[in-house]
Amino acid sequence: MCPGCGAPTALRQAFMGIDAPVVVVGATGCLEVSTTVYPYSAWRTPFMHVAFENAGAAVSGVEAAYKAMKNKGNFKENIKFVAFGGDGGTYDIGLQSLSGALERGHDFTYICYNNQGYMNTGAQRSSATPQNASATTSPAGSVLPGKLQRAKNLTEIVAAHNIPYVAQTSLHNPMDLIMKVKRAVETPGPAFVNILVPCPLFWRIDQGDQVKLCKLAVDSKFWPVYEVENGVYSLSYTPKSEVPVEEFLKAQGRYAHLFKKGKERPDIVEHAQKEIDAEWEKLKGKCEK
Amino acid sequence: MSKPKSWRDIPPATIAWGATAREVETGLWRSMRPVLDRKKCVSCLKCWLQCPDASILTDEDGKVTAVNLFFCKGCGICAEVCPVKAISMHPESDFANDTEKHGENPGNVGEYIGS
Questions:
Q1: A274 contact B CB<8A
Q2: Under an 8 A CB cutoff, do A40 and B76 touch?
Q3: Which residues in B lie closer than 8 A to residue A208 (C-beta atoms)?
Q4: Residue B104 — pLDDT band, cuts 50, 70, 90?
Q5: What is residue A53's DSSP assignment?
């Protein structure tokens, strides 16, 4: 892992919430390639590496095999199943297998560490990359201000599967992250946790700033922290003093083109603020019901 | 099954031993070194929670004792999150003449997984 990467922090915190013996399935991504460099492994659990597109399918297969063995009496222990994927392997390439696994109702937890792009291959845009961010395949230039499309709201897409537990969290608040993973793992049936993880390389931030950036993202309502339990929405955190999204954008190099001297784009920042406020109101409406 | 003696002993397409990444000295990448001031430290463990490399060492009472420089990549997150500023970052060149050994290889504690 690069120095200052948020993924290992998120992973360490997530595992603090898991007590039972666990089998891990990892989709291809930064986390997988850097923790299982042949012939080394950083995992002290059984670990299965699968391709980008089939972490959901692989974890359901492992879980089904375990259930069958348990029914035959070959197995007595209670084992939990966790799949890890980055946003590339979850939002984009692995969405079909994840959706299938959620629909079939396997007892597993899917944890997405979301750094908002394909970092392993050099900061390409993914469907999790927010609008106007400059990525290598959607660079900001004299004509275009970075990525044109809006980011996909995967947490909502997963919640639409009507699974028992869906949560969105960020690593700056370890207690929230740990408790959410704990609940997700302990919930029978499929569960999904989406964790915001800064990538110093892509976000172009200082190595030591991941916690600050996550806090800014949550306080500016850019990344709301909430959970959906059996269809009931609840906000885990409402910012006490709201921060304008401009501060969050300004702190990162991938939005530097919006604040370039002489070429400032206040219209884009204003538009982003409006969209974030609208999304927040929508979410709040769901939580009050 | 014992530890492999050569690559021929490694089973194909699998990594058979868990936690072998402990043998890799990622501390060699470091350009900034965290220095812990034990007098200021209140052992709130915020650095321990946020350290990506699990390099904050603690004793049985949960008190922060040191930074394991074998793994620490010097990202500075610990210094950033410290509420009492007990950790400061110094360029590695300051320690060029330092012969004292900092951090050590915890060795292969991996267990063979499977049969």
A1: no
A2: no
A3: 75-77, 79-80, 89
A4: low
A5: G
Closest Cα to residue A31, out of A15, A44, A42, A16? Answer: A42
Measure A55 CA to nearest chain B CA, in Å.
17
CA distances from A273 to A154, A235, A277, B98 (A): 20, 20, 6, 51
Q: Kindly report the CA angle at A214 between B49 and A112, in degrees rounded to 5?
A: 80
- A255/A226 Cα distance (integer angstroms): 26
The model's pTM is: 0.89
Cα A114 from Cα A136, distance rounded (Å): 18
Instruction: Say yes or no: domain B29-95 is CATH 3.30.70.20.
Output: yes
Which residues of B are less than 8 Å from A36 in CB distance? 15
Q: What are the domain boundaries of chain A?
A: 7-288
- Among B50, B88, B89, the strongest candidate for a mutation testing the A interface, having the largest count of A CBs within 10 A, is B50
CA–CA separation, A5 and A272 (whole Å): 26
Is the ipTM higher than 0.95? The answer is: no
Q: What are phi and psi of A234, to 5 degrees?
A: -145, 135
pLDDT of A229-263, one tens digit each?
999 999 999 988 889 999 999 999 999 999 988 88
Cα A138 to Cα A132: distance, rounded to the nearest angstrom: 9
Phi and psi angles of residue B49, each rounded to the nearest 5 degrees, phi first: -70, -30
Cβ of B7 under 8 Å from any chain A Cβ?
A: yes
Give B81's pLDDT tier (boundaries 50, 70, 90). Answer: very high
* Digit-coded pLDDT (tens) for B41-61: 999 999 999 999 888 888 888
Low-confidence stretches of chain A (pLDDT beneath 50): none
* A7-288 homologous superfamily: Thiamin diphosphate (ThDP)-binding fold, Pyr/PP domains (3.40.50.970)
Tokens 């990549």 identify what position?
Answer: B73
pLDDT for the residue numbered B10: 67
Q: Which of A275, A120, A273 is nearest to A201 (CA)?
A: A120
